[in-house]
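Possible race condition, two jobs.
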Amino acid sequence: MTHAGAVVAAVAGVVAFFLYSSIHRIEEGHLGVYYRGGALLISPSSPGYHIMIPFITSFRSVQTTLQTDEVKNVPCGTSGGVMIYFDRIEVVNMLAPSAGQHMKVYDIVKNYTADYDKALIFNKIHHELNQFCSVHTLQEVYIELFDQIDENLKLALQKDLNVMAPGLTVQAVRVTKPKIPEAIRRNFELMEGEKTKLLISAQRQKVVEKEAETERKRAIIEAEKFAQVASIQFQQKVMEKETEKKISEIEDSAFLAREKARADAEFYTAQRVSEANQVKLSPEYLQLMRYQAIASNSKIYFGKDIPKMFMDLSHFVPSGKASEEVNVWPNKVREKASEAVDGL
C-alpha cells in the first residue's frame, strides 16, 4: 500500500507539473505565437489562458498595441567627413492594429522572428540616417535640415515596411539633437550668438520702423483731421457768405421793387398831371389868364386897341424922355403879359 501510494503521488506530481508547464497566459494587447520543434505554428492565440504541450511547444508574446522602440547612440558621417552621434531615436510603431489580421502577424514573425523590430526598425534607422547624413553637410544636418529628419525617417521607414512587412505601421519618429565635436559646437554657439544679435538688431529696427510708421500715420490722421475741420469751417463761411449774398440780393430786389413802384407812381402822377394840364390849358383859359395878369397891374390905360395902351410913368422917367418912353411902353407891356401867361 505504501509503495502504491508513492507511485500515485509521483504520477500526480508529474501530471501537475505538466499541467503547470502547459498552461500559459497571453496579456491584452498581445498575440501568442507558437513554435513546435522549432517550426512556427500557423494560428496565433488571442489574449487569455491557453494550453500547450510542454517541452515540445513554446510560445512568444507579440505586442500589437502602440510601442516605442529606442535606438541609441547612432553614428552618422556628414558629407564633409565630420562624425556625429545621435544620442537617442524613438520610433513609435504598431503591429496589425485591426482585428482579423492575425495572418499578417504570423507572416512578420515567420520572416523576421518575434524580434522583428530589430531587423525592420533598428537596422533600418541606422541605414536611413546614414543615407541622409552622407549627402548633407554638418550645417544642414545640425541646423538647417534638422527639423526635417523626423519626417524623412518616418517616410523612409514606412515606405520599406509597406513592402517588407504589411501591417506594421510607423506612427512617429523623434530624433534628439546630435552630438558634434566640442570645437565645432563652440563655433556653432558663437554663430548662433551672432545670429541672435543680428535678429535682435533686426527686430529692434523693425520696432523703430513700426514706431515711425505709427507716428507717421498719427501725423497723417491729425493733418487729415485739421484739413477736414478747416474744410468744414471754410464751407461754413462760404455758406454764410452765400446766405448774406442771398439776403442782400433779396433786400436789393425789394428796394428796387419799391423804387420802381415809387418811380412808376411818380411817372403816373406826372402823366396824369400832364394830361390834366393838356385838358385845362385851353386857348380860352390862357386868354383869361392873360387878362388876369394884365388886370393885376396898378394902372392901365386903354385906347382903341391894345398897342395904344399906356401907363402913367411920369414919376419914373425924366421929363425930357417921357414922350419917347410912352411910345415904347405898349410893346413892353405886351411882352410882359405874354411872359406872365407862359409862366402859368
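Job #2 (started ~2 s after job #1):
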Amino acid sequence: LYKILTWAYHHKDDDDQAAEGEELTPQSPHDISPWDANFINVDQPILFEITVAANYLEIKGLEDLCCKTLANMIRGKTPEEIRQT
C-alpha cells in the first residue's frame, strides 16, 4: 500500500484526461518517466501485486504504468522465455 500511496502523491497534480472522459493520445510503451521507471523497478511478485491493487482501486495511471512495464518485460521473447521470466 505504501508504494501505491507514494505513486499517487507524486502524481497528484498530473492532468487526468481519463477522469474527464477525454480521449487519450497513444503513447509508446517506452514513454515511462525516469521517476516512474525507478518507482516500478521492483521484484516481479511486487509488480504483480501493485498491478492487481491498481486495477482493484481503479487507479488507471498506475495500472497503465504496470502494464507497460510488464509488456516491456516480455517484448521480443519467445513463449518459453516468457515462461521462465
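The two ends are 25 Å apart (CA to CA).
Logs attached separately.
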